[in-house]
Amino acid sequence: MTLNPLAFPKGVKLTCELCQKPAFLQCILCRVTYYCCVEHQRADWLGIHEKICQTLTILRQPVPFLPSEEERQNREGEFLKQKSHMIDLTRTTGQKLLFEGKHEQAVPAAMQSLRFAIDVYGIASIELVPSYLILGEASIGMGRLSQAEEYLAQAEWTVLKTPNVSAAIKSRLHRNLGLLHAARSDFPEALRQLADDIYHASEEYGPDDIGTSGGYFHMANVFFRQGKRDVADSLYRQVTEIWHSHLDRIVRSRTRTPEPPKGVGPGAVEQEVEEEEGLDEAQEAEAIQVLNSICDMREQQPSKRSQDLVSVCHALAMLYFVLHDIKMAKEFGRKAVVASENNLDDDFSRNVVEFMKVCERVN
Q: Which intervals hold domain MYND-type (predicted)?
């Protein structure tokens, strides 16, 4: 990203995009974003700015004079759509970076999502909470627990004073509070918060949905740290089963042979195509992080059930198939085949072999 020193117009005070200190550098691509130093410019570019640079040019340009009320309303409506899209994009990007362990890079994305949410919904809206939660989780990942507590306190206060808050928001709040207490080694409180996370997530998505699986995974990590391996093991197994079922549905949907049209000739009616299930960027990153973590643990426990290793390897193979990485799909598929040699579940073993045949056909 090219840098350009600024000649400040008289009376105009420019501030850094990340820290709000006086700015001396400008992005020469959008020319509406400023920074106090090269480090902050680079951090913003890597975190989110590369994705939103051109859109910021449109959203931050001076408002032109429009002669009619209809034109002004149309422009405001278009801007509202773009800002709403930016909220979704920046939040998904921030969550994806968290799952990838890139906590510092997640901060610029979360800050942008917070700015747009304030602009669209106002300073006290419940719509700001997801941004506070990303900032809180990023702070936990960087070891800044006091800062994380401030963000989560703001999110919790907003939730408490807002009626009819969705179970999804409550779930995410309790999950982050659980992570905060786990980082402080307060395991009883961490487990209590994660139990509330699972309760609300089950209410929103169902107990066997990938939206709920994160609560099980973090709870398993807490039990693992306490040395309660059997409890942790059962929870890791549940997480694997949830992702395995979800990915199996996606793979079956993508590889299913379409039904022929009903009837013959020009009057033939095409079969209605079901909407394909998929994963967004954040869900992809979560699946990669969670399943690889469980797989590493299973491979270090050769004396445990081979079924557990088969299941997680097969889930990873399907995940990479969904991500169009056939090389990695085959690699984990082969691991699943080897692990299934001592597995008593013949149906499961056959499913793995059938999946490998699908990979060969795609390749």
A: 16-53
CA-to-CA distance for 312 and 297, rounded, in angstroms?
A: 10
- Domain locations along the chain: 1-53, 228-253+282-363
pLDDT tens, residue by residue, 59-74: 887 766 667 777 778 8
306 and 343 Cβ atoms separated by less than 8 Å: yes
**Is residue 97 packed enough to be buried (19+ CB in 10 Å), middle (13-18) or exposed (0-12)?**
buried
- Calpha distance 125→120 (Å, rounded): 10
Report the SS3 class of residue 64.
Answer: coil
Q: How many CB atoms neighbour CB 319 within 10 A? A: 26
CATH level 2 (architecture), domain 228-253+282-363: Alpha Horseshoe (1.25)
The widest CA-to-CA distance across the chain, in whole angstroms, is 78
Residue with tokens 């840098």: 3
Directed axis angle between helix 281-299 and helix 210-225, to 10°?
40
pLDDT confidence tier of residue 201, bands split at 50, 70 and 90:
very high
Q: Per DSSP, what are the bridge partners of residue 46?
A: none
Calculate the alpha carbon distances from 165 to 122, 125, 176, 202, 213 in Å.
17, 11, 17, 15, 21
